Amino acid sequence: MCAVITERATCRLRIRRSAWEPALRRLLGRGSNFAFGSLRREAFPGGWLFLADQLEVGDTVRGGDRRSPQEDWCVVAVTNAESLQIERLISGLLPRASQTLVLLILDRQVPETCQMLLWHAGTLQPLDACEIVGSGMLRLEQHNEVDSLPDERRSSRTRGAMGAQLHDRLRSATVTIVGTGRSGSQLSFLLAAAGVGRLRLLDADTLLPENLDGMPGLTVDDLGQRKASALAHRLMCFAPNLLVTCCEHPANSEPARQLLQRPCDLLVTTVDNDAARLCISLLANRTLTPHLDIGTLVRQADSSPGRAGLFADIRLLLPGSCVACVGGLADPDAAWYELNAPPGSLQRGEPVSWSAQRSGSLAHLNTLACSIAVEIWLQLLRGEIDSWWQRLTWPTGAPLQITSSAVQGTNNCPVCHTTN
Ligand SMILES: [Zn+2]
User: Fold this and answer.
1) Distance from Cα 187 to the centre of ligand 1, integer Å
2) Residue 417 in domain
3) Cα–Cα distances in Å, from 78 out to 59, 111, 144?
4) Do 361 and 311 fall within a single domain?
5) What is the pLDDT of residue 156?
6) Tens-place pLDDT, residues 132-159
7) How far is the CA of 321 from the centre of ligand 1 (A)?
8) Ligand 1 centroid vs 18 CA: distance in angstroms?
9) How many Å lie between the centroid of ligand 1 and the Cα of residue 56?
């Protein structure tokens, strides 16, 4: 059973920052009048996500009549205030009826304002949003998606600490979380408390007694329910304004596919399953969506039985990097095999008991990792970091060690490498 709250159809454009910035510099520097490029298209129920990997700049644009009938394309035009007539611009671009054209019209005098239009089947309609994918995650919006004022008293402390601008971004943000166990549930509560507007939760597991101490916020009344729907219910009690969609089916099922194909602002994995993490890395790169991967481990020290070391990895992976090449897959071959195997296939190799890999779990380690993960996402939104790996190592009997570094994908990675 899948609890689904109806979502309004949206059309969004995503542009790689590596394509957008040089084009914008030339446009605003009056070097050229237009930036343009082909678009990839990802359909989801009731809407589309358009994706631009490259932009050319020039004083003239190759029109629709000189492009393939199936090609979707975009044009970024710069104008001086009222001087540009949209109808005239479109008639000059000659889009074919079979093509979709996305138009961004920037005002050179006031570059932060932007008209965003979608020309499809001979009609113009507004584009909901344009996102520049990279550090800062610049978002141009046609209109304010936030429909209601927040509970001002409740959010005043968070808003005061975070700043109104960032808090507003979170209120209009959607986060999809794959895995709603220990870290997934903690992250959900932290994101709800931070003001995130919509969460989508995906997990097929059932809540068992041994899960409960790792999932503060859930109660004994939730035992026996699916983790995703039990968590959704508790989240809605905690934050009634939060919109929650959940799916209790396996990641390779059709309902899960429908949930995952809806565009979101952040894809999160908090799962032990490498095939699922690889699957989300592929999706994140295909849809130009940031991917946040959280892993924790409690391991008994061989030399000191009864005393455990604590470990956590938090990886923020922007398009152009992924879990396959940056690191984090225990056995990449097995992950690819499982990803490509038909449902019901036998597991490759010997099944591994959870206790063979870890000693157990500690809710405070999950909360620590998730708290850091939230701040790393905020750093991305503030434009302070790009792809990033934060590692916590708390060896038995030693102080906590925190290491971090910027990361990049490799040039020949089959998941995240593009020729752009
Ligand atoms: Zn990669």
Assistant:
1) 25
2) no
3) 11, 9, 23
4) yes
5) 93
6) 999 999 888 664 444 455 578 899 999 9
7) 5
8) 17
9) 25
Instruction: Find the 149 Cα to ligand 1 centroid distance in Å.
Output: 40
What separation in Å is there between the alpha carbon of 408 and the centre of ligand 1? 8
- Ligand 1 centre to CA of 328 (Å) is 11
The domain that holds 179 is classified in CATH as: 3.40.50.720
pLDDT in tens, 92-128: 899 988 899 999 988 776 666 678 888 888 778 888 8
Measured between alpha carbons, how far is 316 from 387 in angstroms, rounded to an integer?
5
Decide if 27 contacts 76 (C-beta within 8 A): yes
Q: Ligand 1 centroid to 377 CA: how many Å?
A: 20
Cα 280 to middle of ligand 1, angstroms: 12
With residue 274 as reference, give the H or E element that holds it. Answer: helix 274-286
Residue 396 near residue 259 (C-beta atoms within 8 A): no
CA of 38 to the centre of ligand 1 (A): 23
* Tokens 């923020």, residue located: 316
Q: How far is the CA of 271 from the centre of ligand 1 (A)?
A: 19
User: Domain tally for the chain?
Assistant: 2
Report the residue count for the chain: 420
232 and 361 assigned to the same domain: yes
- C-alpha span between 195 and 192 (Å, rounded): 5
Pair 101, 158 in one domain: no
Domain that holds residue 98: 11-141
pTM (two decimals):
0.82
Question: Is 416 domain-assigned?
Answer: no
For residue 6, being part of any structural domain is answered with no
User: What distance in angstroms lies between residue 275's CA and the mean position of ligand 1's atoms?
Assistant: 14
**Span 303-327, pLDDT tens digits:** 766 788 999 999 999 999 999 999 7
Q: How far is the CA of 125 from the centre of ligand 1 (A)?
A: 36
Task: Indicate the burial class of 7 (C-beta count within 10 angstroms; 0-12, 13-18, 19 or more).
Answer: middle
Domain boundary at 120, 141, 162, which? Answer: 141
297 CA to middle of ligand 1, Å?
A: 23
Q: Mean of the pLDDT values across residues 220-249?
A: 92
Q: Which of 103, 118, 141 is the last residue of a domain?
A: 141
Could you tell me the two tokens for 356? 């063979």
Per residue in 31-80, pLDDT tens? 678 999 999 999 888 788 999 999 999 988 988 999 999 999 999 988 76
Residue 260 located in a structural domain:
yes
Calculate the average pLDDT of the chain.
Answer: 86
CA 416 – ligand 1 centroid, Å: 4
